[in-house]
Amino acid sequence: MAKQPMLKFVTVDRDMPEKRDATVRSKDFDEIYAEFAAAKAAEQASRCSQCGVPYCQNHCPLHNNIPDWLNLTATGRLEEAYQVSQATNTFPEICGRICPQDRLCEGNCVIEQSGHETVTIGAVEKYITDTAWENGWVKPITPAQERPESVGIIGAGPGGLAAADMLRRAGVQVTVYDRYDRAGGLLTYGIPGFKLEKDVVMRRNDQLAQAGVNFVMNCEIGKDVTFAELREKHDAIIVATGVYKSRDLGGPGAGAKGIVKAIDYLTASNRVANFGDTVAEYESGELNAAGKKVVVIGGGDTAMDCVRTAIRQGAESVKCLYRRDRANMPGSQRETKNAEEEGVVFEWLTAPKGFKGDTVEAVIVDKMRLGAPDASGRQSPEVIEGSEYDEPADLVIKALGFEPEELPTLWDQPELEVTRWGTIKAEFTTGRTAMPGVYAVGDIVRGASLVVWAIRDGRDCAEALLSDLNAKAAVAAE
Q1: Which CATH code fits 150-243+404-477?
Q2: What dihedral angle (degrees, nearest 10) is formed by the CA atoms of 131, 137, 141, 143?
Q3: What residue ranges do the domains of the chain occupy?
Q4: InterPro entries recorded for this chain (predicted)?
Q5: Mean pLDDT (whole number) for 403-426
Q6: Do 458 and 441 meet the contact criterion of CB atoms below 8 Å apart?
Q7: Is 125 helix (H, G, I), strand (E, B) or coil?
Q8: How high is the pLDDT of residue 1?
Q9: What's the rounded Cα separation, in Å, for the pair 306 and 191?
Q10: 3-state SS string over 337-403?
Q11: I need a labelling partner for 393 at 20 to 30 A (CA). Which of 22, 51, 56, 424 fits?
């Protein structure tokens, strides 16, 4: 009888790929985790308990068949493991790097609940797909038959690209429009290279371009081309713009020089560090932390990206202000730990009330305490009277989250229905809006969310759109 390849969580401890030393990794923008070796990936995959009801799969937005590809990895069937992984996820190597597994699949692993520590699902997922690329198992996209229908996708982020991938595989003619010069959205310009090296994203962009997806870059809808013109040109439109309007801060001195938006700061850094672009605001020091006392305001994943980027740019000091405590921060605990290892100081239970200097010199800070729960059940932060102090700062980065731009106004489409939050009204499972032939996916529907949810929305929308196109074709053929 063959030896049981799985259920080894009792005898094999959890192990992550080796993490580069903080003093070394904080000086560059390369990814901080090494790759699993084949034996180590198989060993860690063998810890899976092969649950009858896999909570990891249930809590993955894409419902990836995690126990199946862990089993295949543990038994050395890596090409099959990749095929199973790719069946439900358009970009598994990206999700393996940037998904908050501690809040999703790994956070709901049954062996974690039993005290044996979770399976390292994300690291194995990354290993499987990187191995697939290296061995030529990732095949070009070749539709079995070309279709005449044309779909325009506004936004080259993960939601738009996931939809483009599925539609092109079905033979649909796809054009993607984006305001930036490179496709990928936040994958390219928002997430730093130390979490997601850019050749990983560019490789997928190239795959789509080689498959016949037409990319129209540096294209601003409402300026370079109207939304009405796109609707006239294409059989259907998918809006996948994401949410890029930064939430702002008030208070005395909020307009001082040296107070910048996280998206501007990260975009400049990614251009310079990962693509070698020349960015005037970086060269001038406006979006460069070198030699400065940096204060980042916020506690989400964007704030973690900013503090860790500032360290790599050579900041004199980096502090993160967050109005709640560590246990209540929205960002990844793993990212927080990485940031602390690299020299970031977290000031928990603090909130800015103003700024000093025409060019910022300090943040005026109130200390906070957690009071009664709010409507969401989280304890509301309250100011401690008389606790005010000054936090010296030469550069303040606002990482307070993102909101939708006013698309009905920007695109001169008052009939485009939006919610009271400014997100587009669309069916969650299909992306259909009230406008005929117009669909919407990702953050512009959900509000600021995760990359994995955008991929899920893009895939679901493509499936619904194909169904609608097939229905139209059937009617036309009668």
Answers
A1: 3.50.50.60
A2: -150
A3: 8-134, 150-243+404-477, 247-402
A4: DPD_II, FAD/NAD-bd_sf, FAD/NAD-binding_dom, GltD-like, Helical_ferredxn
A5: 95
A6: yes
A7: helix
A8: 33
A9: 9
A10: HHHHHCCCEEEECEEEEEEECCECCEEEEEEEEEEEECCCCCEEEEECCCCCEEEECCEEEECCCEE
A11: 22
| pLDDT value for 168 | 98
Backbone angles phi, psi at 293, to 5 degrees: -85, 110
The gap between the terminal CA atoms of the chain, to the nearest Å, is 59
| Cα-based distances in Å from 319 to 258, 307, 395 | 15, 7, 11
Please give the C-alpha separations between residue 183 and each of 128, 160, 205, 208, in angstroms, as whole numbers. Answer: 24, 10, 7, 10
Minimum mean pLDDT range among 109-118, 130-139, 296-305, 404-413: 109-118
Distance CA 131, CA 392 (A): 47
- Among the ranges given (36-45, 54-63, 389-398, 444-453), the one the predictor scored with the smallest mean pLDDT: 36-45
For tokens 């730990």, name the residue. 337
The tens digit of pLDDT for each residue in 290-308 reads 999 999 999 999 999 999 9
Torsional class of 309: left (φ above 0), alpha (ψ -120 to 50), beta (otherwise): alpha
Same topology for domains 150-243+404-477 and 247-402, yes or no? yes
pLDDT tens-place string over residues 251-262: 999 999 999 999
Helices (H), 55-140: 55-58, 66-74, 78-88, 92-98, 110-113, 121-134
* C-alpha R_g of the chain: 23
pTM: 0.94
**Tokens representing 443?**
């953050």
CATH 1.10.1060.10 fits 8-134, yes or no: yes
d(CA 367, CA 350): 5
Q: Which two tokens stand for residue 2?
A: 């063959």
Tokens describing residue 243: 């949410």
Taking alpha carbons only, the member of 472, 465, 413, 411 closest to residue 439 is 465
Residue 310 tokens, joined: 């500032």
**Phi, then psi, of 188 in degrees rounded to 5:** -90, -50
